[in-house]
Amino acid sequence: MNSETIKKLDSELYKRVRLFHELVYKKNQPIDKALDSLILFLNTLPLSRFSLWKTRMCPWCTAEPMYGWNICRDPDAALGSVTLLDIFSHNGYRREEALHNINTAVPNSFLFSQLLTMLNDWVPQVRLAACQAIKRVMHITSPAIMTESLCEILYRWTSWQRMEKQEHLVIEALLSLPKLAEPMRQKIIRSSSGPIPSLLAQIGRTSLLDCSLFEVATTAIQPSVRAKAYRFLFEKRMFWISGREHKWVHRGLSEQHARVDTQERHIEVEFSFETLLEQASKDKSSKVRRVAIEYLIKNDTLMKDKIKHYALIFAQDKAHTVSERGQFLLRKLSGDTTF
After folding, report:
1. Is the CB of residue 246 less than 8 Å from the CB of residue 257?
2. Are the C-beta atoms of residues 174 and 138 closer than 8 Å to each other?
């Protein structure tokens, strides 16, 4: 998306937000039409720019952003009734009350994405209200809306430092919804860009896509996604980043060490090692073929009869990263290596 398109969307969003909040400030004014219009417009905003758009949604934009936004410089002088859009408010009390008022299906992925990010809100009461709101609406909100939001938010939620056990359980409850299995599968297979491998790993927290993992490995558009799926199948386990922790090495020099925590879950794989190896060795991407030769080297005892056949295939591969591993396996079979 180019800068001109962003400016046009930003300008239009400014007009609609200003109109809505002008009505909110004036008591006894009908706001339903303006609210519906604004929510409808939010459907057109790409979630790839979600961080930008959400800063525009705050009722009290007192800063001077890049396009000259300035809706209200004195928010306390014009507080109106709490509405759905107060989930973007700077006021924690209004955010909490707006969350408590959510009892119907979330109308679009933009608002549902905001609900997810509020699981990392700096106010504990708001985080609790967000958990309760998501539990109330997750069974009645459209699967397509939730899938789009999760795909945009989920891959980076492990960097959120304020989340506690209850917030993690809400995410896992979302990923356990059977109605999300098909749209998630389609999203992972058809996406041609984006951090889909990380998304696939995070979905591995639950068994949502266990039965579709082989299909993902063979048909996904992104080579990195296919390679990740094959790695899970070869390992017979799902593993993912569960969190990041920064520890001080030297406070005086401001040196920190980042530690990544991982978790794993065993999965049942109905395909044999040879079937997986054969499919992966024929993949058009060297990333996938490299995974195949890597696990062939690790599990050479499982392919005693055909291991040399596959080693010769990989040794003649056009990709250097694959052929050098195939040549190593041939040397290992002939006894020319020390391990």
Report:
1. yes
2. yes
H or E segment and range at residue 141: none
DSSP-based three-state secondary structure for 103: coil
pLDDT of residue 58: 67
Give me the domain span that covers residue 309. Answer: 272-339
**Is the separation of the CB atoms in 319 and 289 below 8 Å?**
yes
Residue 300 counted as domain residue: yes
Cβ neighbour number for residue 100 with a 10 Å cutoff: 13
pLDDT at site 31: 66
State which amino acid sits at residue 167.
E
pTM of the model: 0.84
Strand residues in the chain grouped as ranges (E): 237-250, 255-266
What total number of domains does the chain contain?
1
Distance, in Å, from the CA atom of 18 to the CA atom of 25, rounded to the nearest integer, reads: 11
User: How would you label 41-69 residue by residue, b for 16+ Cβ within 10 Å and e otherwise?
Assistant: bbeebebeebebbbebbbbbbeeeeeeeb
The owner of tokens 């020390």 is: 338
Establish if 325 belongs to a structural domain.
Answer: yes
Give pLDDT, residue 24: 63
> How many other C-beta atoms can be found within 10 angstroms of the C-beta atom of residue 30?
8
Residue 57 has φ and ψ, to the nearest 5°, of -85, -15
| Spans in the chain with pLDDT lower than 70 | 1, 24-31, 58-81, 337-339
Is position 282 within any domain?
Answer: yes
In a domain, 316, yes or no: yes
